[in-house]
Structure of Plasmid replication, integration and excision activator:
Amino acid sequence: MAIKPRFQVSMGDVFPHGAYVVSDVEPVRDYDKSSAGRVVQAVDKESGLLVWAVSVLDADPEARKDAKTVTVKISAPVQPVPPEAPAGMPFRPVEFDGLTVTPYVNESGGRARIAYSLRATAMRAPRIGAGRPSKQDAA
């Protein structure tokens, strides 16, 4: 099949009002390879790079409460460093490069619904404004 499971999207498609880092960047655990005494970090199947996760707040004022904070997984050889907060701001605006979305069926809570997994190749401070995504695609 020619359709890939990950769809390339721009930062503005996913976070039109911007996004803010709200957690530390953590390694993603490979649950199949890890054991009780030995933690193995997940490796991206497509790139072969280590997988890291960061929680971000979607700045869309109309986003549902249960969808305000999302996890973005980042494939990178070393732990990504979140951008610094601008002077006088308590939040760290962020943009993601190489952003992709993978739809899947989430059957938790007794009903099936479409959910999305977000992945990126890098994160950085926004190029324009205080958290609003730049107009150019991050492809």
Summary: DSSP finds one helix and nine strands in the chain.
